[in-house]
């Protein structure tokens, strides 16, 4: 029995003023799977984006450190 079977109905206690209970039907298994796939794609997109940003940032830092080392070496030779 998969998680979709447990999500088929959620039992909500009614408010004391309205009296009684409410059963709220959830989406079908296909809808649950579609939401899961969408969330996974969003998560993968975020991870890929941040990995690319971090690589660019690392490249900028490496270039800046290299530039600084060259400036220091040139200053020492004068």
Shape: rod-shaped
Give the overall pLDDT as a whole number.
Answer: 79
State the helix count. Answer: 2
Largest sheet: 2 strands, antiparallel
**First and last CA, distance:** 77 Å
Number of strands: 2
Radius of gyration: 28 Å
Strand arrangement within the widest β-sheet reads 1-2
What fraction of residues sit in β-strands? 5-15%
Helix content: 55-70%
Number of domains: 1
Derived from helix and strand composition plus strand pairing, the structural class reads alpha+beta
H-E string: HEEH
In the predicted model, the low-confidence regions spanning at least 5 consecutive residues are 6-12
Summarize the structure in short.
With 78 residues, the protein is an alpha+beta fold.
């Amino acid at each position: 029995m998969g998680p979709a079977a447990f999500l088929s109905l959620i039992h909500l206690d009614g408010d004391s003023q309205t009296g009684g209970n409410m059963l709220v039907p959830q989406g079908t298994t296909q809808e649950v799977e579609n939401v899961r796939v969408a969330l996974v794609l969003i998560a993968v997109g975020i991870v890929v984006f941040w990995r690319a940003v971090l690589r660019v940032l690392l490249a900028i830092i490496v270039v800046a450190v290299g530039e600084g080392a060259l400036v220091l070496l040139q200053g020492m030779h004068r």
